[in-house]
Amino acid sequence: MAAAAVPPAAIATSTASHRDPTSPNAATTQPSKLANFTRAEFEDTCLRRFFFGLAFDPYGGTAGLWDLGPPMCAMKANFLSLWRQHFVLEENMCEVDCTCITPEEVFIHSGHVERFNDVMTRDTATGECFRLDKHLEDYFEKKLGTATATTPATDVANWEKLKNDVGSMTLESLQQVVDQFKVLSPKGNPLSAAFPFNLMFKSMIGPEGTKVGYMRPELAQGIILNFKRLLDSNNASRLPFAGACVGQAFRNEIAPRASLLRVREFTLAEIEHFLNPADKRHQKFSRVADVRIWAWNMDQQEVGADATMHTIGELVASKTIDNETLGYFIGRACLFLQKIGVRFLRFRQHRRTEKAHYAQDCWDAEILTSYGWVECVGIADRSAYDLTAHSRGSGKELSAREEFDTPIVVRVLDRKINKGVMGKAYGKDTGAITAAIMNLSDAEAKAMEATLASGAKGSVTLPDGRKIDITREVVSFVEKDERQTGRNFTPAVVEPSFGIGRILYSVLEQAYWVRRDESGKNEKRAVFSFLPVLAPQKVAIFPLMMKPELEAPVGVLRDEFVRAGISCRVDDSGAAIGKKYARVDELGIPFAVTVDYEADGTVTLRERDSSKQVRVPKTEVVGVVVQLCATIEPRTWDSVIAAFPEHKSSA
Amino acid sequence: MAAAAVPPAAIATSTASHRDPTSPNAATTQPSKLANFTRAEFEDTCLRRFFFGLAFDPYGGTAGLWDLGPPMCAMKANFLSLWRQHFVLEENMCEVDCTCITPEEVFIHSGHVERFNDVMTRDTATGECFRLDKHLEDYFEKKLGTATATTPATDVANWEKLKNDVGSMTLESLQQVVDQFKVLSPKGNPLSAAFPFNLMFKSMIGPEGTKVGYMRPELAQGIILNFKRLLDSNNASRLPFAGACVGQAFRNEIAPRASLLRVREFTLAEIEHFLNPADKRHQKFSRVADVRIWAWNMDQQEVGADATMHTIGELVASKTIDNETLGYFIGRACLFLQKIGVRFLRFRQHRRTEKAHYAQDCWDAEILTSYGWVECVGIADRSAYDLTAHSRGSGKELSAREEFDTPIVVRVLDRKINKGVMGKAYGKDTGAITAAIMNLSDAEAKAMEATLASGAKGSVTLPDGRKIDITREVVSFVEKDERQTGRNFTPAVVEPSFGIGRILYSVLEQAYWVRRDESGKNEKRAVFSFLPVLAPQKVAIFPLMMKPELEAPVGVLRDEFVRAGISCRVDDSGAAIGKKYARVDELGIPFAVTVDYEADGTVTLRERDSSKQVRVPKTEVVGVVVQLCATIEPRTWDSVIAAFPEHKSSA
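Output (C-alpha cells, whole complex):
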C-alpha cells in the first residue's frame, strides 16, 4: 500500500525519481512487501557503516537498547530540524522540553500505573517470560504452517482470525485462548496464568528512598501539565493552540525485537493540540482536504477488506475520520512523511477493542518494512481525558474560557454550601471538600441532591483518594436561572505522536537498493537513496588521486562547504575513484565532487542515484549543492544536468 | 572575571554593543558579581514568560525537575545547531546517539557504582537528609557572619579556609570537621555519621526483575564503548578522532537548588577525543594559540590568588595546561561560548584533591551568575582510564594501532603458556585466563615471574571478578628480543562536556537588563539582549493598528519569514505598539517589523537593544533580517542603519 499524495510531477522533479527503478509506482499500487529486499544484506550494510548498533557492545549488548551511529545521528538531527520547520514553525506551536523522570502521582492520575501493561506469561519450568499476545501470534503462525489439505477449512480460518486478533485482546480473552488450545511455552512446558506487567521503568527520586518516580513512556503528560502556563504566557488565553515536545521515552518491553522497531528507549516528537471539544473544526483544513491517503478504517479491518484511497476531505465528510482537526493532522503527517522520502504509507484506524483508554478516535500512520506494516505515527483524539484526570488528581482547575457572542440564560444547579457547618465538621479539609463539591458535574450534583433528600449520606472523593461523607446540613442543590457571558471548559486534545527511530528505520529500508557496479564488473553495491534534505551528509569530496598538489584545493573546498552549512565527507585515501563512490553511496550521500587536474577551473559533480556527472566551475559548485539540498524548493538534478556540460567518467 | 578573547572590534560590529551600557568592559575588568542584577525581578520575568518552570506544576512540582518553556526551548535548539556546526561539522567529529538506560556492568567497571557518590548526613531526630559539604559551607558561612571584633583572626581565617575547602574533601575529612566543631543539623539535632550516597537513578531492565540498570549520569561511557566501531567504520582506523553525543543525563541530587543550576535531569553535549597518549599535540593548535582566557590554576587557588589573563599558547608552553590537545579544546570552548554571547567567563583548573578518579588534568569553564561562578563546561584529560577499565571489564581489546616509520627491536617478556595443563586445570575458563595473562603489563608479568620462581602461586582477576590462582606449570615469562613494526595502544581521551541548561541559564542572567520605558514614563521594562543566533525567535511582526486591511500584509510577511527559516511571532492584539515592543523585548527577540499605512511600500524595522528604527522596503525586509541573523558573518545593525532611512517613532 502506498502513499498516494505524491503526484507524478513531484517525483519527476526530485532526485527520488532515480531511486530503485524496480520499485512499484507509488501512486497506483499497494505492495505487501518491499521489492528486492534482502534483510541480511541490508543489516550488514547498516552495522558495517554503523547506522546503528546494539548499545554497550563490548559487554555483549542489552536487548532493546540501540545506539545510533554517525550517519543515523545526522539523519535524526535533519529529521528534527525538518519536523520543527513543518510543525512548530509553520503551525506556530509552543515547544516545551519536559523531564523524563516523572513523579508517581502524574501516572496514577493519567491511568498509566494501573493500565499501561502488557499481558505476560512465564514458562513454569524455566522461569522465562513472554509477551502473551506475541507468543500466541507465533503459535498460530506455526499452526497455519502445519495445515495440510486435510485440515478443515474452518480451523484454518479460525487460526488465521485468532492470529490477527490476539494483538488487541484483553488478558481474560488471551487466557481463554491459552486454555482452549492448551498452548505451551516454546520449550514445551506449561505456561503460568496470564498476568499484567507494567511497562514503565521505576526508580526512586531523592535520597530518602520514599518518593517513587517513573521514566515517562510517552511525552504527552509533560506537555499537558504545562497547558495552563502555555495558555497564559504564550497565547493570550486563546484556543486552539498546540504544545510540542521532542525527547526520550522508555518502555520496559517484555520482548524487544525487530531491530529498531521494538526497543526499550526511543525518541518521540509529540504534539498536543488543545481545542474546544464543542468545535473541532480546523481553520486551515482546506489546505489538506485534497491530500490523498490510503486509509484502512476499523470496519474494513473487521471484515478483512483492504485499505482504499481517499482524500482527507472525503474521509472527514463521511465521518470515517471523526473530525476536521484529527483529519488536518493526518493530512499534515502524510505530507511530512512524504517530504522526508517515505514511499509506502497507509493510515490504519484503531479498532474498537484496541483503542487506548483515553482515545475517542485514533489513526496510525503505518510504513511498510520487511517486518510488515509498522506503526510509526499515532494520531489520536484523546478528548478531554487527560486534563480532566489531572484536574481531579491535582485539585487544580485546568480549563479554558470561551466568551459567548451574546450572553445566555441557563438553568443551573446552584450549590448552597453551609460554610459554618463545613468548617466545624471538616477543619483543614474544608477547602478541598468545597472544591470537590463545586467540581461535581450537574448529573453528579443531581444524584447527590436526591440522595441527601432521601435522608441518606452522599460522598465526594478528594485528590488524595480519601472518600468524605457529605450530609444534608452541609450542602443543598437548587435549580435556578443564571445569565452567563461565557463558560469554562476542559479542552480536548488531538495528539500526533511521531516515533522517530521507527520512521528513520523504515526510511532506511525503503531507501535501500543494490546496483551493479558501474565498471561493469557485476559487483553488487548497496545504495541508500535518501532525499538530500534527510541525507546524513550532503556532499563527498575526493581528490582524483592521492597527490600533494590536490590536497590544498580539497581542503579549501571542504572549508567552503562547512561555512555554507553543508556537511561533507572527505575521502583522501588511495582507493580508486569508483570505490570511493561506492563507499559514499552506502552512506546515502547524494552528491560527490571530484577535484582533478583540469586547468579550466572546473570540478566534477556526481549525483548518487543516476551516477551522472557534470563539470561545474569550482567557484559555483558550493552554491549549486546548497540549492540542491535546500529544505524548501530544492533545485532539481535535471536542471543541473541542463545547465552544465556532462562529464564522461574514465574510472 | 571576563572573557578576554572578544576583541573590541568584534563587539563594535555586533549588536552586543547595545547591551546593558552599565556592564563592565569585558576585556579589562573582572567583576565578582553581575551589575544591576535583581534576581527576584529576573525570575519573575523568566517564570511569567515561561522560559522555564518547575515540572509537573499542578502537582506542586518536584525539586530538581524543571521544564523549559517555548523561548528557552527554541534557544536550546539554536544552541545545539550552533554547537554541532562549531564542533561536529567544523572538527569532523562522529556524533553518536546513545541510550540513557545503561546496564550495571558498565558503571561497575567505569567506577561509578563504587565512587559516584556525594557524602550525606541525616538529622537523627527528623530523618531529613543533607549533602554534608553544602551543610558545612552554610555552617561556616553563618559562623563567619557572627564573627565580631573580638573573634581571634586565626579563627576567622580557619573558618574561611574550611568553607572554601569542604567542597573538595573526602568523607573522612568531612566527618572530622563535624566532630571537631560539633556541628548540628539546621534544626539543632545531632547528625548521623557521614555516609556515601550514590547519585545514579537505579531501575530494573526487563520483566524478570534481575538485571539492574542505571540512568547515565554523564554521556562519556556511551561514546567510549563505541570507540572500536567509530574507529573501524568511520575513520579508516586513524587517530586522533572524536566522538560526540548530545542527550539527557540524570543525577539523583541530594539537595537540588539554585534554579536550573543543580538539577536532577539535564542535557549534556559531550565530546570524547581519542588520541595517542604518547603524542598529545594537536594539528590545529596554532588556530587557538592566541585566544586569551582568564585562567585560575590550581596553585593560584591554593594560595588564594586571583585568576590571570593569558593566551592558550602561553598556558600550554608553561605546562599550566597539561598538553596541546587539552589547550585546543579549552580555546575552542572559549570561542564557542563567546559566539553564543557569554560575557563573563573564566577557566578554573581542578585542584589535586577534587580531581575525578580518572582525570589527569581538568579545567572548568565557569560563567558568572548571581549564584557566583558556575561550572558550565568541564574539559578533562581522562587519560586512558575508561578504555583500559572497559577492556579489562569486558575482556574485549579496545585499542588502536600505531605503525612505526621504521621497525624497532625491543626486549619483551614472552608469555609461554602450557595449553595442555591450562585446559585440564581450568576447563571452560581457559580462554579468559589466557587473555588475562596475555593482558598483564610487563611490570605485572615480571612480578608474577618472580612469585612463580620463588615457588609461590600468582593470580589473575577475570572480568567477572573471580581471582584465579596461577602456578608454575601453567606459564613462564622469558625475556627476548622482538622486531616490532608497530604497536597496539589504548588511546587516551580528552573530554569537553557542556552542561546545556547551566550555560543557557547563565546566558539568560548575563543578557538580562532593565531599561526605562521609551515613552519616558519611567516604567521599568525587562530586556534580554540575546545575540540573534541564539534568540528564541528572530523577528516580531505587528500591524500598527488592529485593522482588517493590515491583516493580509502581516500574514504574507509571516509566511515569507517562515519560508526563509526565520522564526517569528505575530502580535495582532489591540495593545499599543510600545507595549508590543516591551513584550518582545522581554522574550529577547532582536528585531521587530511594524506594518503600517505608508503608501511607499516600506515597513519599519526596529532593533531591540538600541530601540532604533529604519524604514525598509517590504520586498527587502526578509532578506535583511536573514542577513542580520546569519550564523556565520551576520550583517551588523550599523550597516542597516547606514543603508536605510531612519524612522522616528511617534509611539
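Chain B is about 35% helix and 25% strand.
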